[in-house]
Structures are given as structure tokens and as C-alpha cells.
Design brief:
Helix content is 27%, strand content 24%. It has helices at 12-35, 42-55, 128-147, 154-167, and strands spanning 59-60, 78-82, 85-87, 101-110, 113-122, 171-172, 178-180, 187-191, 211-214, 217-219, 225-227, 235-237, 243-245, 248-252, 257-259. The chain has a 5-stranded antiparallel sheet with strand order 8-7-9-14-15, with helices on both faces. Strands 1, 2, 4 and 5 form a 4-stranded antiparallel sheet that branches. Helix 3 runs antiparallel to helix 4. It is globular and about 45 Å long. 48% of the residues are buried. The mean pLDDT is 96.
């Protein structure tokens, strides 16, 4: 099934190189956690991230990417999405304030191989419902990682993600999904965080040496999203409720899974 879907399995050497790229992504996101305080701007965060990536000879995966629906290539190393912004927020001079939720997505290429990870950061103090949103989204990613193992098909994992989130009264985004990753940022297969029978032809078996970017995106309100700006980059929740986003680059092993972007 993996070969039929055009999925490229990775050698142990390639996975080691992806882990090296993953360590860089982890360091960048750790620094973003330190810098995300009231009064900071997302432009300042992006400048720091770009400097960290360039210092070690890495390449920012997002910078310069063309979206056929957008009016210009993505201009930054980070996607910085605030509150109702789900993904693809462009760093700017907007100052963060207490109560904000900031989702930061970072991807790099280092020595020819890619890694991609995202986190949602609170600008304290935040509301109880915002804390729950962050917690549930992170737990959804943790659940997916725990459920990954050879012999399963992805739909089994996706159903567990969706079921967990919906039991908590929140919504899994349908319009954006995870992806395979390796030499390129986006490889086969597509990795959804929900499942219905219409997607049956997209299902794939989990096999050792497959590497996936797993990224639950959860909305506090409905799952519906739309473009939030004329440039057609930033995506926002349709009802204006907050969203959260967590992501890791994960290798399937003989016995389970191995997270390549956790800093090890």
C-alpha cells in the first residue's frame, strides 16, 4: 500500500539526518516560547528564528513557498497565527497581548533533509477555555504518536484523534492535514486528523521507516475555516473562535514511533 501511494520510505541514515534537522526546529520553537510575551511582535520572533536557522546553514522551508491561491510567496521562516488564525499567519508588527494564543509553525531543511513542527503558546494569563484548547490539541498529537505502529492503517489513528477531540466538545479541522516529509517538505501521503468513508482511497498502512508530519489542528468552535485576508495566506476560523495547532515529525519504527522533532 505504501508503494502504491508513492510513499518514499527512509533509510536509517536519512532518519538520522531528519532528526538533526528536527533538533534545529526544536531549538527554534523553544526560543519562540521564551520570546512570546506581552508586547513582543511576531516579526521579532521571525527575525530571531531566521538568524538561528541561517547560523547553522539551514534553510527555512516556508520562506518563498508559492501558494497558487495567494498573491505572493510566503515571506517568512515562521507561520505565526494568533487566536482565530488557524495557519499561515504572516509575522508582522502586531504586538501580542495577555490572553492571546500564538501558534508557531517552523520547518527547516538541513543537509538535504527536512523537519517540521508546530506549537501553540499562551500569552499569560489566558482564559480557562483557551487553556483547555491548548491541552486538548497537544493531547491529540500525543495520542496519535502513541497509536502509530506497523500494521495499522492511518484511518485507525485518525478516528482516535477525531473521537478524542469531539468528545471534549471541540472540532478537528478538515481543510488542512499533515503530510509525508523527507527531502521535500510535502511528500506523500496526506495525513488527516479525522476520517470518513469518502477518504477510503487515501488510507495507507503504517510501515517501518515511513516518516510523517502529524499535525492536529483543533478549533474551539466549529471546524469551518476561511481565508482571513486579501492576500489569501492566513486561514481563520469561520466563527471567530480560537484555534490551536501542534505538530511533530514522526518516524514509524518496528515497534511503534520515534519523534524526530522533540530535541533528542
Amino acid at each position: 500500500m505504501a508503494r502504491r501511494r508513492g510513499i518514499v520510505l527512509k533509510s536509517p541514515r536519512e532518519i538520522d539526518l531528519m532528526r538533526k534537522a528536527g533538533r534545529l526546529v526544536h531549538r527554534v520553537l523553544a526560543r519562540m516560547h521564551e520570546m512570546t510575551v506581552a508586547g513582543a511582535t511576531t516579526a521579532e520572533l521571525n527575525l530571531a528564528a531566521e538568524a538561528m536557522i541561517e547560523e547553522v546553514g539551514g534553510t527555512a522551508l516556508f520562506k518563498g513557498v508559492w501558494n497558487p491561491q495567494a498573491r505572493f510567496p510566503f515571506p517568512a521562516a515562521l507561520c505565526t497565527s494568533v487566536n482565530e488564525q488557524l495557519v499561515h499567519g504572516i509575522p508582522n508588527d502586531r504586538r501580542l497581548k495577555p490572553g492571546d494564543l500564538l501558534s508557531v509553525d517552523c520547518g527547516v531543511r538541513l543537509e538535504g533533509y527536512c523537519a517540521d513542527s508546530a506549537t501553540t503558546i499562551a500569552v499569560a494569563p489566558i482564559s480557562r477555555e483557551s487553556k483547555r484548547l491548548i491541552d486538548i490539541t497537544k493531547r491529540a498529537l500525543d495520542l496519535a504518536i502513541q497509536e502509530i505502529r506497523p500494521g495499522r492503517v492511518w484511518s485507525q489513528v485518525a478516528r482516535k484523534i477525531q473521537g478524542f477531540v469531539e468528545r471534549e466538545g471541540m472540532s478537528v479541522v478538515r481543510d488542512f492535514v499533515g503530510h509525508g516529509i523527507g527531502r521535500d517538505m510535502h511528500e506523500e501521503p496526506k495525513v488527516p486528523n479525522y476520517w470518513d468513508e469518502k477518504q477510503k482511497g487515501m488510507d495507507f498502512e503504517l510501515v517501518p521507516n515511513m516518516v510523517l508530519a502529524v499535525e492536529p489542528m483543533v478549533n474551539l468552535g466549529s471546524a469551518a475555516v476561511e481565508f482571513g485576508s486579501a492576500d489569501r495566506w492566513v486561514v481563520v476560523t469561520k466563527d471567530g473562535c480560537c484555534a490551536a495547532h501542534f505538530e511533530h515529525t514522526v518516524a514509524v519504527t518496528e515497534n511503534g514511533s520515534d519523534v524526530l522533532t522533540d530535541g533528542r
